[in-house]
Amino acid sequence: MARPAAPGQRHENSDPPDKHRPQVVLGAVTTGLLNTSEPLPMEAARQALALLPGVSPDWRRHPIEQVVSPDLFFGLDCKLAVRSGAQPRAIGTARARAVLTAGHVLQGSASVAVVLDASKRRLPWAHYAARTGTVEAINKADPADLVTGFLHARAGNTLLDLGKTGSYVMSLLDRVPQVDRQARLKTQTRRLLWAAQLVPGTEPEAQVEAGDDGVFRVRMAIAPQLLPTFVDFCEVLALHDWLLAALKNAFDRSARRGRRAEDEIDPALTYLGHIWNPTAHLSSQEMRSLWQALEDEAQLTWEWQSTLTRVRDKVTLLTRKAIEETLHKESV
Amino acid sequence: MLVFSSSDKGGTGRSVTSCNLAYRLSLIGQDVAYLDFDFGSPTAGAIFEIPTLERGTPDGGLHSYILGKVAEPARVDVRVVTERTALKERPPGSGKLSLFPGDVGGAEFHLTNDHIKKAIDLFETVEREFDVAIVDLSAGRSSALDMSLQAVSPKVRPRKADPIRWLLFHRWTTQHVIAASGLLFAENGIVACATNAGFDQRGFRSMVRTIRTAVPDDTAFGKETTPEQEAWLRKSDDILKGLAKARGLGQDLLAGLTPLEPMLLWREQVIMDVDVKRRLAKRATTKSFDELADRIIHDDAWEGF
Ligand SMILES: Nc1ncnc2c1ncn2[C@@H]1O[C@H](COP(=O)(O)OP(=O)(O)OP(=O)(O)O)[C@@H](O)[C@H]1O
Ligand SMILES: [Mg+2]
């Protein structure tokens, strides 16, 4: 879908294209349930997400508990996928962070800003180390082509794979003592890929595509200064896409042969039922409009509400049945 | 729960039975993943009648994943991609059925710690999503078998994790019984390998059960069985039982048996209830798969000797 966002503050930024200014930013958000039976309390979560010694994570309690780790950087020397022609080589660092929502839903979010046609050969590492979160591509490439290539290529071991980076950041939480590896819900990890072309002065416009492979793909043209809020937007979308999938899965599993419905429904309601609140995470007007446009088309919140209603109706029915059975037993 | 399917010889019916088990488990409400670890000849795609995966996937299957070539292994929903119409249907109350195919042209590999780490991650991921994951290992000792044992050894697996089942498939003949027993108990056998990986012997042996495949009954002689044939068959069966017991593969280790199924003599496939209804397959065949499926998910069949 394509939707212009509401007119926010327009940034006049028509500097001539700088050789060292990124034209494309690529990212991936991996979302899954933290492998614990109970959510991490705030204090434990803040400790767990202190992934850099001496840097404390960002956190907030309201309206929903959320802790965001400091950014970590990972050295890269890889190829970028393109639709046609030679794959450009990219060298630099990826930026990644972990986000824990409600002490339970864990995300690994990774991105790189790509400077195209920066040099003809690999430079000393100090050059790249000074530009965190950025990779420089040796040889030319078309930004639109890079975007398509990144969103649709199947990851190979020489290709940039930010999903892997995100998963790695998530795995850092495995060693936290409270993570007992006894999750009470069967869930699948899901992935969202995003790619933004940086266009100074442009109004944000996004295309969101839910693939058959379960991967959300977001393609965007955006003014550079809006990029951080766009990353938030993608994380929020990934979180809510995951929530919806997890609740649907629990509901589906509650109707299985040979299984107690409560065993699936109780943990789903207890741990996931209260988390849905997309706009609470979106601070900028642009991204709220973008979300609204997405809602108009995909009706995510409606789908969540209706799924939640079905789950709760089922609980009501089960409870009534249980009461009737008890009464019946007593009267016999 | 992780279920490993092993056999000494090729052609024992390990893959076909495992696919049928996976299907039956999904029918009784389990979310099932089938992991094709027979890297040299992944056949699950053919058995589930998925044309694009007949000999594994060209696109990052389990073999590529273990070797670190792709970050995530290819996977398909069997009901979505199968060519068999009846199999596409998901009956109410049944669970998911996903196949993680092997790679076209995969092969044996030299096992390293990195591979074991990949396997640990893979098992954890599938166990967090599925109720049961069936891992089809190739015949005999293989890197995949060593890797699997190390990836689930008590050294790395949390004590409170879901149970593990180790199935040993063999045909019901003298040679197959001897070979299967060898694979399990010989000097370099599975039990020794498991002990090396960190299992205690008793603990590991309590996870192992055998499945006798394609066991003939007296109908195998044809329509008119003579009393002599019947008597001979009973005697041969008794001799085999004696042999199995003497070789440590007795009744106590038996998870079940599958009858000789004529349909499977022609074609490696999932036997569905419609096949029985159409009077193509034997009722005893689907019944044996159901019993096996039931036994796998119920702990009581795996407790004590
Ligand atoms: N119950 C049965 N009755 C008759 N034939 C069977 C039965 N089970 C399996 N078969 C047949 O036995 C043959 C071998 O089966 P399968 O391919 O499953 O063996 P395998 O042990 O996986 O072999 P490999 O080691 O080569 O992978 C197949 O043709 C299959 O259809
Ligand atoms: Mg096989």
Concise description?
The complex is a heterodimer of chains A (332) and B (305). Chain A has helices at 42-48, 125-129, 143-152, 162-171, 227-253, 261-272, 285-298, 300-331, and strands spanning 3-4, 24-33, 58-60, 66-68, 72-79, 89-101, 105-119, 134-138, 190-198, 205-210, 216-222. Chain A is of the alpha+beta class and 332 residues long.
Describe the structure.
The complex is a heterodimer of chains A (332) and B (305). Chain A has helices at residues 42-48, 125-129, 143-152, 162-171, 227-253, 261-272, 285-298, 300-331, and strands spanning 3-4, 24-33, 58-60, 66-68, 72-79, 89-101, 105-119, 134-138, 190-198, 205-210, 216-222. Chain A has 332 residues and is an alpha+beta fold. In chain A, 41% of the residues are buried. Mean pLDDT of chain A is 89; it is low at 1-17. Chain B has a single domain (2-303), classed as P-loop containing nucleotide triphosphate hydrolases (Rossmann fold), CATH 3.40.50. Chain B has an 8-stranded mixed beta sheet with strand order 3-4-2-5-1-6-7-8, with helices on both faces. Chain B is globular. The mean pLDDT of chain B is 94. Classes of the chains: A alpha+beta (332), B alpha/beta (305). The structure holds adenosine-5'-triphosphate (ATP) and magnesium ion.
Average pLDDT for all residues of chain B: 94
Relevant CATH superfamily of chain B: P-loop containing nucleotide triphosphate hydrolases
How are the strands ordered across the major sheet of chain B? 3-4-2-5-1-6-7-8
Given helix and strand content, the structural type of chain A is alpha+beta
Shape of chain A: elongated
Largest sheet of chain B: 8 strands, mixed
Which sequence of SSEs, written as H and E, runs from N to C of chain A?
EEHEEEEEHEHHEEEHHHH
Mean pLDDT of chain A: 89
Greatest chain-chain interface?
A: A-B, 25 and 25 residues
Number of helices of chain A: 8
Bound molecules: adenosine-5'-triphosphate, magnesium ion
- What portion of residues of chain B is helical? 40-55%
The protein's oligomeric status is heterodimer
Give the topology string of chain B: H per helix, E per strand: EHEHHEHHEHEHEHHHEHEHHH
Strand content of chain B: 15-25%
Low-confidence stretches of chain B: none
Proportion of beta-strand residues of chain A: 15-25%
Assigned CATH class of chain B: Alpha Beta
Radius of gyration of chain B: 19 Å
